[in-house]
UniProtKB/TrEMBL annotation:
Stored Pfam families: EamA
Source lineage: Bacteria, Bacillati, Actinomycetota, Actinomycetes, Streptosporangiales
Source species of the chain: Actinomadura hallensis
Family, per entry: Belongs to the EamA transporter family.
Protein name in UniProt: Drug/metabolite transporter (DMT)-like permease
Entry-linked InterPro entries: Alkyne_AA_exporter (IPR052756), EamA_dom (IPR000620), EmrE-like (IPR037185)
A GO cellular component annotation in the UniProt record: membrane
Domain EamA: from-to ranges: 14-144, 157-289
Low complexity bias (residue ranges): 309-318
Amino acid sequence: MRQETRAAGVDKLAVAAATVTVVLWASAFVSIRSAGAEYGPGALALGRMLSGTLVLGGLWLVRREGFPPRGAWPGIITAGILWFGAYMVALNWGEQLVDAGTAALVVNIGPILIALLGGWLLKEGLPPRLLAGMAVSFTGAAVVGLSMSGEGTSSVLGVLLCLFAAVAYAAGVVSQKPALRHASSLQFTTFACAIGALACLPFSGQLVSQAAQAPAGATLNMIYLGVFPTAIAFTTWGYALARTSAGKMGATTYAAPALVVLMSWLLLGEVPGLITLGGGLLCLAGVAVSRSDRGLRRRDRPAPGGAGPAAEAESRSALVQAHTRD
């Protein structure tokens, strides 16, 4: 019973950590849109990664966690290049061509890709609902792209960049999951962020020149991106991911597009058009379909008349083992 209570407590902490992540990541879309008016995509990514690395490095030194074990490095390097490097540049570039809400809606096909890659590479399962959901979400992304095609090729390019960012994001999450079996969330995030900063170093000259001319508000937005949506949010994400599957963690980002649309409306005065919003809702509908577990709930439902004390004890034991394994 004590083990069961502890496992349930971990679940609550993981949900709280995931909630912090989703809110801060949603705010990132708005800050990127704002700072992107003064900073180029690569310069903004480098400034964000440098700010995040400074904060994370300080925490890492204070906690004396040491270097990650050898088994964690393949995932750290992969995520550092794809998620903390390529994703950041592609998203920054895409948000210069489309509004923050549209970018968030398109990037949010990432959870489906996470579930797909998790089922294939991490053996988390590949149910038919996942494939159906992926088809619905890609249809939604196509609707978003077509709805903006009348605004010029730059908007279509923006949607494509956001799609690429979603792929890089999914690859980063799937490479992170096995790495967290060896390293703590803080270790992973600190060194992946540092690798992302190294990958963005070619933009250092642009960052220096643009920082000299940018207003204080844009620079503060860049620092905010490094401290909150990166240093804090990626650490809380890793904490939660270590305690559940990659596919289920991807599902926690469902609320992000709605939060981004709300924040961009309140802070930037941006609201996607109705057709664009409809395509984004299709993206979310596909994610919801892909993560539906109705069949699982039916299979797990106790038989009429109860399962008896022995089966109940076996079920409790399996639940505790599953939480321990995650």
